[in-house]
TrEMBL record, chain A:
Molecular function terms from GO: ATP binding
Pfam families named in the record: ABC_tran (PF00005)
Protein name in UniProt: Phosphate ABC transporter ATP-binding protein
Organism: Streptantibioticus ferralitis
SMART domains: AAA
Source organism, top-level taxon: Bacteria
Keywords linked to the UniProt accession: ATP-binding, Nucleotide-binding, Translocase, Transport
TrEMBL record, chain B:
Principal subcellular localization: membrane
Protein encoded by which gene: pstC
Keywords: Cell membrane, Membrane, Phosphate transport, Transmembrane, Transmembrane helix, Transport
Function of the protein: Part of the binding-protein-dependent transport system for phosphate; probably responsible for the translocation of the substrate across the membrane.
Cited Pfam families: BPD_transp_1
Name of the protein in its database record: Phosphate transport system permease protein
Alphabetized InterPro entries for the sequence: MetI-like, MetI-like_sf, Phosphate_PstC, Phosphate_Transport_Permease
NCBIfam families in the record: phosphate_pstC
UniProt organism field: Streptantibioticus ferralitis
Domain of life assignment: Bacteria
Domain ABC transmembrane type-1 residues, every copy: 90-319
Subcellular location, record wording: Cell membrane
UniProt-listed Gene3D superfamilies: MetI-like (1.10.3720.10)
PROSITE patterns given in the database record: ABC_TM1
Automatic annotation (TrEMBL), chain C:
Subcellular location: Cell membrane
Pfam families, per the entry: BPD_transp_1
Annotated source species: Streptantibioticus ferralitis
PROSITE patterns reported in the protein's UniProt record: ABC_TM1
Protein name, per record: Phosphate transport system permease protein PstA
Protein task: Part of the binding-protein-dependent transport system for phosphate; probably responsible for the translocation of the substrate across the membrane.
């Protein structure tokens, strides 16, 4: 719910509907004419070759795209039927409801593990100052990190390993109690074991959240996603387009489009 | 107030507050950025406004048509001739800056070549730090040191110059004696020391942008290190060095206190010899400002200040444009 | 044919080239050694002259009423410098950081113009800034420490903007996006994530600007004017600074006044060098920390 109330476990996951969306940088579309329904309590994977605009599409889902200079959007993204690009929508509030995890782990370097987890709450003015160890524990437990860091909550966030840092970032995103979690290639800078840990985590949190993940690792999409959307661009320099979307198993076994099959079988990208 | 309840009203209020702090913050930092523009414009406007009575009384161009600065001859009524000619100050600024450039640029280029390309690795950082420290020494210290340490040290050379070149045909007047110490030459020397670290710092950055591949391919052709510097580093850095020199010039043009202390403050006319005393645009302001009691005296000093502003703006803008263009060429 | 040429001219050419190389290497090294020697000369000379009189009396007393008398000190100038530079720092640091935030975090046309004009402002002669503050302030309200502080603040402003801008650009964009994605407003992101990450760089820049302001003399002649008679702590009246007292005592022609000026010069040099070297060490430590 769009309220500044303390986080709770009762928040219902939301759905997202992308309607005729085109996102551009300096007037040049990076991804065009996308229509996509993202169902709650599911993992939706966006796959496609580099430059197909899947990251840009993901960044449109919480409005982060517009924070880049020269970026613009047409069309709409409906978060539970309310357009996040409507004039009266508050981008800060949208980003609280739609959390995001990035390619590189981005712990805030000046903050401890605990302060990192609570950063969104403190800085979003939703919590007074104070230890709030219970909230930190809750979020870290959800991210499966609690046992590993419970004795070093005061250590700098940057002192954790890469995989731990990424789970710290997931905990930080979950602490804000979003309804939707966007993940932009969250494992691309991690070793295989950390990757598997995070994939397990994704499967767990989809029980309570709507998850959208960008990946160019097709095995990963096959392992974690319920729905898979395939994007590609007709030629280098042209905007990416959504080619096909469907249940992951069907996309990987019997794609309806030739380009999807080519990509999945490794002929392109 | 009760804790925030989830009602549409509170939701809207919270929303509005978020938006407000963000907006206030954005306008605040915007205002700070605008301050830079305002300061620059206001500087020009206020200087000209202060100078205006004198400009109107004597005519704008009359200041540039005389090299005689004689405040004691000024009266509240007489308009001709203008007792506040400023050509000798423009001349003094030009001559001292020129001497500084001629001395400082080659040394700065040599030092930055040594620091970036030649010096052993472990020496580069500490040596660069020491050269940078020259920039930290205040102007008034350079002036004081100039009077008591530099002038006695260069006096034999100055006297020798005036004896040998002073009577030479053609260039004689430039080196005419007698040499007492306070002079354009010493002012130029002090300025050279002061702008050296600035030129060195920019040159070092410029040299550091020369691609390693260029340097290695020169070396691979069998070039010695000096030939490599001449073939690969210096040609690519020509406009960067020029820009650095112009920015150094900009600093020399505006430098005040050190120059005031060693130039002799002779304002009555142009001194042709670089071994003689003179004055620069900035030195005359610093030297006479607090004692400007004659009619139109202070206003005329403001005229000098306004022209100094114009010259400094032109020199610095040109220098900055050259350096910036170089940066883009390299990138 | 040329390939069959005997090797000797080539070798002679080579030895000539190696000789040139050796000579030029020595020339470059000598130029650098000369510049360093110059620095040593200046510092040693100031230390030698300054140590003759620098002492408790100098640091705690005001100058004698008559410059030709021996004794006394620059206590009023030291206090004045601290007050004036302190006010200037208080004015310029927040404004400079805010302007740099606009340049880096918001951009746009004003930001480009401001960035360029900041460079122009850095090159503005300090005496011109002094004349500006005279016209803006002193002509109406008279000479005062406050006017001097405004002049110094205007000199520090572009230095702080430039230094802060450079370190803000080093803060990885991922951190900003990570914060924004948590639903943190842009203002809070800048204040709580970006600025703390860049803190040591900003402090370095501010310290260097303070060092610069400590030594400025020309603009103060036109604004704070100086006051050699007594210790003045009220910045709405004319005030002395260390730099002004050095200047005034240096040019008197009395050996007694010059002795005080040398002690003042040494004091000033020590303050400025501590600030400059300290800033450098701090920035090195900051770099080491962020690299880890």
């Amino acid at each position: 719910m769009p309220t500044p109330a303390p986080p709770s476990d009762t928040a219902a996951p939301a759905r997202l509907d992308v309607v005729n969306l085109t996102a551009s940088y300096h007037g040049r579309p990076a991804v065009a004419d996308v229509d996509l329904a993202i169902e709650p309590r599911q993992v939706t994977a966006l796959i496609g070759p580099s430059g197909s605009g899947k990251s840009t599409l993901l960044r449109c889902l919480n409005g982060l795209h517009l924070t880049v200079p020269g970026a613009s959007v047409t069309g709409s993204v409906l978060l539970d039927d309310a357009d996040i690009y409507a004039k009266d929508s508050n981008p800060v509030e949208i980003r609280q409801r739609v959390g995001m995890v990035f390619q590189r782990p981005t712990p805030f370097p000046t903050m401890s593990v605990r302060d990192n987890v609570l950063a969104g709450l403190h800085l979003g003015r939703r919590l007074g100052r104070g230890p709030h160890d219970d909230l930190a524990e809750q979020a870290l437990t959800k991210a499966g990190l609690w046992p590993e860091v419970k004795d070093r909550l005061k250590a700098p966030g940057g002192s954790l390993s890469g995989g731990q840092q990424q789970r710290l970032c997931i905990a930080r995103a979950l602490a804000v109690d979003p309804e939707i979690l966007l993940m932009d290639e969250p494992c691309s800078h991690l070793d295989p074991i950390s990757t598997l840990t995070i994939e397990d985590l994704i499967r767990e949190i989809k029980e309570t959240y709507t998850v959208v993940i960008v990946t160019h690792n097709m095995q990963q999409a096959a392992r974690v996603a319920d729905t898979t959307a395939f994007l590609t661009m007709p030629a280098v320099g042209e905007p990416g387009r959504l080619v096909e979307v469907g249940p992951t198993e069907r996309i990987f076994s019997t794609p309806r489009q030739q380009t999807t099959e080519d990509y999945i079988s490794g002929k392109i990208g | 107030m009760t804790p925030l309840a989830d009602t549409p009203a509170t939701r809207r209020r919270v929303r509005a507050r978020w938006r407000d702090t963000d907006t206030v913050f954005r306008y605040a930092v915007r205002a700070a950025a605008a301050l830079v523009v305002v300061v620059l414009v206001a500087t020009a406007v206020f200087l000209v406004a202060q100078a205006w009575p004198a400009l109107r009384h004597y005519g704008i161009l009359s200041f540039l048509s005389s090299d005689r600065w004689a405040p004691s001859e000024a009266t509240t009524t007489a308009r001709h001739p203008n007792p506040y000619g400023i050509v000798q100050f423009v001349y003094g600024t030009a001559v001292t800056s020129l001497i500084a450039m001629v001395l400082a640029v080659p040394v700065a280029v040599a030092v930055s070549l040594y620091l970036t390309e030649v010096a052993p690795g472990w020496l580069r950082k500490p040596l660069s730090g020491l050269v940078d420290l020259l920039a930290a020494i205040p102007s008034v210290v350079y002036g004081f040191w100039g009077i008591f340490a530099l002038i006695p040290a260069v006096r034999p050379a100055g006297v020798w110059l005036s004896r040998t070149l002073g009577s030479a045909p053609g260039i004689g007047p430039v080196f005419a004696g007698p040499f007492f110490g306070v002079s354009y030459l010493v002012a130029g020397l002090v300025l050279a020391i002061m702008i050296l670290p600035i030129i060195t710092a920019i040159c070092r950055e410029v040299f550091a942008t020369v691609p390693t591949a260029d340097k290695e391919s020169a070396l691979a052709l069998g070039a010695t290190r000096w030939e490599m510097l001449r073939m690969a580093v210096l040609p690519r850095s020509r406009s960067g060095i020029t820009g650095a020199a112009v920015l150094g010039l900009g600093r020399a043009v505006g430098e005040t206190i050190a120059v005031t202390m060693v130039i002799g403050n002779s304002v009555l006319s142009i001194t042709k010899s670089i071994l003689g005393p003179g004055a620069t645009m900035s030195s005359v302001i610093a030297n006479e400002f607090t004692e400007s009691t004659e009619p139109f005296h202070l206003q005329s000093l403001m005229v000098v200040g306004a022209w100094l502003l114009v010259i400094a703006l032109i020199v610095n803008t040109v220098g900055k444009l050259i350096v910036r263009r170089t940066g883009e060429d390299i990138a | 044919m040329t390939a069959r040429m005997p090797a000797s001219p080539v070798r002679r050419g080579l030895s000539h080239r190696l000789a040139v190389n050796a000579v030029m290497t020595v020339v470059l090294a000598l130029a650098t050694a000369g510049v360093v020697a110059l620095l040593v000369w200046i510092l040693a000379y100031v230390a030698g002259q300054g140590l003759k009189y620098l002492g408790p009396v100098f640091l705690t007393q005001t100058p004698p009423g008559e410059p030709s008398q021996a004794g006394g000190g620059f206590a009023n100038g030291i206090v004045g410098s601290v007050i004036i530079v302190g006010i200037a720092t208080g004015l310029s640091v927040p404004a400079g950081i805010a302007a740099a935030i606009h340049l880096v975090e918001y951009r746009g046309r004003l930001a480009r113009v401001c960035s360029f004009l900041t460079d122009v402002l850095i090159g503005l002669p300090s005496i011109v800034t002094g004349a500006f503050v005279y016209a803006l302030w002193v002509a109406h309200f008279g000479f005062s420490g406050l006017a001097g502080a405004v002049a110094l603040a205007l000199i520090m402003l572009p230095l702080i903007i430039r230094a802060t801008e450079e370190v803000l650009r080093l803060v990885p964009n991922e951190l900003r996006e990570a914060s924004l994605a948590l639903g943190v407003s842009r203002a809070r992101t800048v204040m709580s994530i970006v600025l703390p990450t860049a803190r040591s760089g900003i402090i370095t820049g501010a310290m260097l600007a303070v060092a610069r302001a400590m030594g400025e003399t020309a603009p103060l002649l036109l604004t704070a004017l100086g006051n050699d008679l007594f210790l003045e702590a009220n910045p709405t009246r004319r005030m002395s600074t260390l730099s002004l007292q050095i200047f005034n005592n240096a040019i008197t022609g009395f050996a007694t006044a010059q002795a005080r000026a040398w002690a003042g010069t040494l004091t000033l040099i020590i303050i400025v060098l501590v600030l400059s070297v300290g800033a450098r060490l701090l920035s090195r430590r900051g770099i080491a920390r962020s690299a880890r």
